[in-house]
């Protein structure tokens, strides 16, 4: 991919303050994209915005603090993005949350189930709905699923169910809006070193899970995911839609 293949493209990124989305935002800025970043974590989002504008002074950037579980706020953010930059060409919907602890199926609390679904699934739907509505000349959306949405595992059923549903959401949207030249794909990462990854170990959650070793026998890094997202956002992938791409070091191969 050319270093400036995304120059002039307006890209919205949710969950931008941390993890894969954060690294992707920096990668997109380096490649000339115009960025509309959002997250619920105000301080960390501000720090990211400052880092990007310091490293890439010419990058146009909008940073908005929102909870994607609030559909009205999502719609306001997307409309503000278009008002600020004139259009929306792509979106990286990576905001998401995990369980605070592993729970057996019969012990799942209503509030935990509803919150995870509200953010991971319904929040992603809210983002897609608002993004698609303003993509008048086509576009590309990349959603965050997970290998947890492709395989069974004990102790985190709400998260797994939300990520499995995103796979169906992605494919259904791709089929419905393909004629508008809007492409929708999703990534299914696993073992990527992020703050959430570290938190799972610190809280002892990972140790309670059934961990499947990957073929590469190592962890993955954000820098190994961001280029794929950028590729899916760009014109070089214009014949790819409805795909769920595993980024797991061969864990499920």
From TrEMBL:
List the protein's name: Uncharacterized protein
Q: Which family does it belong to?
A: Belongs to the short-chain dehydrogenases/reductases (SDR) family.
Has keyword Flavoprotein? no
Keywords from the named record: NADP, Oxidoreductase
One GO MF term attached to the UniProt entry: oxidoreductase activity
Q: Which organism is it from?
A: Fusarium vanettenii (strain ATCC MYA-4622 / CBS 123669 / FGSC 9596 / NRRL 45880 / 77-13-4) (Fusarium solani subsp. pisi)
**Family annotation (Pfam families):** adh_short_C2 (PF13561)
């Amino acid at each position: 991919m050319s270093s400036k293949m995304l120059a002039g493209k307006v890209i919205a990124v949710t969950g931008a303050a941390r993890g894969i989305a954060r690294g992707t935002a920096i990668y997109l800025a380096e490649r000339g994209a115009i960025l509309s970043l959002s997250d619920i974590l105000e301080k960390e989002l501000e720090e990211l915005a400052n880092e990007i504008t310091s490293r890439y002074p010419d990058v146009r950037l909008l940073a908005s603090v929102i909870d994607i579980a609030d559909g009205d706020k999502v719609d306001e953010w997307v409309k503000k993005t278009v008002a600020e930059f004139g259009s929306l060409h792509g979106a990286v919907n990576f905001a998401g949350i995990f369980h605070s602890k592993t729970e057996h199926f019969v012990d799942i609390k209503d509030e935990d189930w509803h919150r995870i679904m509200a953010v991971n699934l319904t929040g992603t739907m809210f983002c897609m709905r608002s993004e698609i509505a303003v993509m008048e000349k086509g576009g590309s959306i990349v959603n965050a699923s997970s290998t947890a949405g492709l395989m069974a595992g004990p102790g985190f059923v709400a998260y797994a169910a939300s990520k499995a549903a995103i796979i169906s959401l992605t494919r259904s949207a791709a089929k419905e809006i393909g004629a508008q030249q809007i492409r929708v794909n999703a990534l299914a990462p696993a073992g990527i070193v992020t703050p959430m990854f570290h938190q799972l170990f610190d809280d002892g959650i990972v140790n309670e899970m059934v961990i499947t070793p990957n073929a590469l026998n190592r962890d993955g890094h954000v820098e190994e995911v961001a280029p794929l997202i950028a590729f899916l956002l760009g014109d070089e992938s214009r014949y790819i839609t409805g795909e769920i791409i595993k980024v797991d070091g061969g864990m499920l191969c």
